[in-house]
Write a structure and sequence with these properties.
Elements lengths: L7 H32 L4 H7 L2 H19 L8 H17 L6 H29 L5 H29 L3 H20 L15 H10 L4 H29 L5 H8 L1 H20 L1 H21 L2 H4 L2 E4 L5 E2 L6 E4 H25 L7 H29 L6 H17 L11
Antiparallel strand pairs: 1-3, 2-3
Helix pairs in contact: 1-5, 1-6, 1-7, 1-9, 2-15, 3-5, 3-15, 4-5, 4-7, 5-15, 6-7, 6-10, 6-11, 6-14, 9-10, 9-15, 9-16, 11-12, 11-14, 12-14, 12-16
C-alpha cells in the first residue's frame, strides 16, 4: 500500500464488478417474489424462506472463499480467478430463471445462480482494499457503491419497464450486463504483484474468535451492528414490491420503480458519504445514517397508505404515474425513500472500510468474509422473520417497517461503544 492517493479511474473501473453484482440482485429481489407468489402460488412465509436461500449459500461459501483468496497465488492474481469462474455461470443461470415453467426447474436455476454468485462476490469486493490505501477506503467504497447503486437503478427502473413488456427481459438484461461488467474488471484491473505476508494466517473462524476475545470489543460491536442493520434492511428490500402492491395498491412494475428512488439517492450520496466520513469519522457518519433510515421506516409505518401516494413534484425517471397516462410524480413515499437512500449510503459506504481496517493487508479477504458472514446471516433471518410476521398479521406487509426500525436502533446502540475502525494514515 505505497500509493499516497486514490486512483479514481481504477476505482471506477473496479466498480463495474459491483455494478454486475447489483444488477443481478436488484432484479432477483424485485421480481422473484412476484414469480413465487403468482406463478407458483407460495405463501408469504415460504416466499420469505425462498428469498433467504441466496444468503444461506453465501453464508457457507463467501467467508471461506474470502480466506481462500487471501492465500491463492496465480498468474491472474488471487481474486480474479474466482470472478472468471463464477460470473459466467451466474449469467447463464440468471437468464434461465424466468423461463422455468415448473417449481423444481425454477429451484435448479436459482440454486445454480446462488452458488456461483457466492463464489465471486467476496473476491470482487476484496479487490477494493487490495488496491486502496486505508485513508481512502471510505471514498473508494463510495465510488464502488456508486457503481453498485447504478446497477440497482438499472435493475429496478429499466427492469420495471422491461417487465411490463416481458418478465424475461429484466433477467436477460442482467445476464448481459454482468458479463460486460466482469469483462471490464478482467481487462482493466491489475492486482498487486506483491502481497503482504504473515507468519501465521488464521482462517475465518480463528479470526472471528480473535475478534470476540479482543477486550476492546469494537470489532464484535461493529459486526453485530452490521447484523442488525442488515436484518432490517434486507427484509424491507425483499418484500418491498409486495408491500407496494398489497399495502399501497401499486402494480408490480410501479412498485419496483418506486423502490428505485432509494438506490438512486444512495448513488447520489455514495461518494459524498465517504468524504463526510473523512471529516466526521466513520462511526459518526454511520450513526447519522442509522437515525435517518429509522425515521424513514417509522414514517412509512405510521403514515396512511393514501397519504404516502400524495404527489409532491414531477419526477420523470423514478416517479410513478398516479393516474392512467398521467405524469410521473415523486410521492411522499418516494420522498421518505430519498431520506432512506441517503441514510443507507452513510451506513453502507463506511462499514466495510471499518472492518478491513481492523486487520492487516494480508487478511483483507478473511475480514471481508467476516463482514459477509454477519450480513448474510442477518439476511437469512430477516426475510424469514418478516415473512412469518406478515403471515401472522393476516397479510399486513406494513409490519415489516416497524420491525426494521427496531433493529436499526439496536444497531445504533451497538455503534455507540465502537472505538476502532477509523482510517489509518500513512
Amino acid at each position: 500500500m505505497s500509493s499516497a492517493r486514490l486512483n479514481y479511474g481504477k476505482t471506477f473501473l473496479l466498480g463495474f464488478g459491483f455494478f454486475g453484482v447489483s444488477v443481478i440482485w436488484g432484479v432477483y429481489n424485485a421480481f422473484v417474489p412476484i414469480f413465487l407468489a403468482e406463478k407458483f402460488d407460495l405463501s408469504p412465509a415460504l416466499i420469505g424462506f425462498f428469498m433467504t436461500l441466496d444468503n444461506i449459500a453465501a453464508l457457507f461459501i463467501q467467508p471461506p472463499v474470502g480466506a481462500w483468496s487471501d492465500k491463492l497465488r496465480s498468474p491472474l492474481g488471487r481474486r480474479i480467478p474466482f470472478i472468471l469462474v463464477g460470473a459466467p455461470i451466474t449469467a447463464v443461470a440468471f437468464g434461465l430463471i424466468p423461463i422455468a415453467a415448473v417449481l423444481p426447474l425454477f429451484v435448479a436455476c436459482t440454486s445454480a445462480l446462488l452458488l456461483s454468485a457466492a463464489l465471486w462476490r467476496t473476491p470482487v469486493v476484496a479487490l477494493m482494499p487490495d488496491i486502496t490505501p486505508s485513508e481512502f477506503r471510505s471514498q473508494a467504497n463510495g465510488i464502488i457503491n456508486f457503481m453498485g447503486g447504478v446497477g440497482t437503478i438499472v435493475a429496478l427502473q429499466t427492469g420495471g419497464l422491461l417487465y411490463k413488456m416481458s418478465p424475461n427481459f429484466p433477467f436477460w438484461l442482467g445476464s448481459g450486463l454482468v458479463l460486460l461488467a466482469v469483462l471490464v474488471v478482467y481487462l482493466f484491473i491489475e492486482e498487486p504483484k506483491e502481497y503482504e505476508t504473515a507468519e501465521e494466517q488464521p482462517g475465518m473462524f480463528a479470526s472471528l474468535k480473535e475478534v470476540i476475545s479482543d477486550p476492546d470489543k469494537s470489532g464484535l460491536r461493529i459486526l453485530l451492528a452490521i447484523f442488525f442493520w442488515f436484518l432490517g434492511f434486507s427484509a424491507v428490500e425483499t418484500f418491498f414490491t409486495l408491500y407496494a402492491k398489497n399495502h399501497l395498491g401499486l402494480s408490480e412494475g410501479d412498485g419496483a420503480t418506486l423502490l428505485s428512488v432509494l438506490p438512486l439517492f444512495f448513488v447520489l450520496a455514495a461518494v459524498p458519504s465517504g468524504y463526510v466520513a473523512g471529516k466526521l469519522g466513520r462511526k459518526t457518519t454511520i450513526s447519522i445514517g442509522l437515525i435517518a433510515i429509522t425515521i424513514m421506516l417509522v414514517l412509512l409505518y405510521i403514515t396512511p397508505a393514501g397519504a404516502l401516494l400524495t404527489g409532491i413534484a414531477p419526477l420523470p425517471l423514478v416517479g410513478i404515474p398516479l393516474a392512467e397516462g398521467g405524469a410521473r410524480m415523486l410521492t411522499l413515499a418516494g420522498a421518505l425513500l430519498i431520506l432512506g437512500g441517503i441514510g443507507w449510503a452513510f451506513i453502507n459506504i463506511n462499514s466495510l472500510p471499518m472492518i478491513v481496517d481492523l486487520t492487516s493487508a494480508a487478511r483483507i479477504g478473511t475480514f471481508t468474509g467476516l463482514y459477509y458472514l454477519f450480513s448474510t446471516l442477518s439476511a437469512i433471518v430477516g426475510p424469514n422473520l418478516n415473512g412469518w410476521a406478515v403471515q401472522l398479521t393476516n397479510g399486513n406487509y406494513n409490519i415489516i417497517m416497524l420491525i426494521a426500525s427496531f433493529f436499526m436502533m439496536v444497531a445504533f446502540g451497538l455503534m455507540t461503544g465502537v472505538k476502532k475502525g477509523e482510517a489509518v494514515s500513512g
